Amino acid sequence: MNFDRDGFYREVGLRVQMQRKRAKLTQGEVASDLCMPRATYANVESGRQRVPIDVVWRLAVLFNVPVHLLLPEPIRDSRSTAALPGLAGTGQFYATAGGVKVGTE
Fold this sequence. Notes:
Elements: H1 5-22, H2 27-34, H3 38-46, H4 53-63, E1 74-76, E2 93-96, E3 99-102
Helix pairs in contact: 1-3, 2-3
């Protein structure tokens, strides 16, 4: 299966940024709580930095949200199995016979 790793991390970064702004925190405040340089955290939000799973977990705790809100859902196209209800058109990742694509069906 092909995987759009860059697209995946861009989506994670957008979700993290959205939650940070909802929590009314600065990049510097979040970076400090995570014990990482602000520039590294900024790279997480921009999708240029791979995010270790423990950092995703700590972000969820910091933002007081479930971990799944920070990660895109894999969605299968109609050639494999039915799409998960309620998730189409939300910038999710779709597993297709030819690999993974980003976007709506």
